[in-house]
Amino acid sequence: MGAIGGSIWHGFKGYRNSPRPASKGDRFAGTIASVKSRAPVVGGGFAVWSGLFNAGDCTLVALRGKEDSWNAIMAGAATGGILAARSGPQAIAVSAAFGGIILGIMEGVGAMLGKLSSDSYKPVAPQIDLPPAPSSGTPATAEPAPASAGGAPKRFFQ
């Protein structure tokens, strides 16, 4: 995902920053050079972030014994802090706060969309067309049984 997104991003960036073409393929060559040099860096960064986040999320599920939005929020904060560990305590605090806030927003939007779309998954009783009820107050009777079956007509719901 990071490699694909990085390829698209740096493809446009390489095209835009290439010099005006002296020949037809110069801009395309600049696009390819930019993608080859920068897209793997974006993909690797995404892989590291994703690995740390998922390891933190699974660890919190195991420690807390429940799977809820707080695990993702805390894992996002921890991931942001860990990735900024080389930059000092202030950078750790800021990155952890932003990681938690961003994951909190993502979890909140996901919960909101889930709540909005939950009505479409409610079970609906089937609509059955029933014959009209008899007008007298007596229950409906079955067809009379043939004489060979023993005689009197049977009633429903006995």
Characterization of this structure:
This protein has four helices and no strands. It has helices spanning 2-17, 26-64, 69-83, 89-117. The longest helix is centred in the N-terminal third of the chain and has 39 residues, at 26-64. The radius of gyration is 33 Å and the shape is elongated. The relative contact order is 0.07.
Write the layout of secondary structure elements.
Elements: H1 2-17, H2 26-64, H3 69-83, H4 89-117
Percent helix range = 55-70%
Task: Tell me the fraction of residues in β-strands, as a range.
Answer: under 5%
- What's the helix-strand series? HHHH
Largest sheet at a glance?
Answer: none
Determine Rg (CA atoms, Å). Answer: 33 Å
Number of helices: 4
- Annotation, overall tally of beta strands: 0
The N- to C-terminal Cα distance equals 67 Å
Helix-and-strand structural type: mainly alpha
| Low-pLDDT segments | none
Overall pLDDT score: 81
Net shape: elongated
Briefly characterize the structure:
The protein is built from 4 helices and no strands.
Name a few traits of the molecule.
about 160 residues
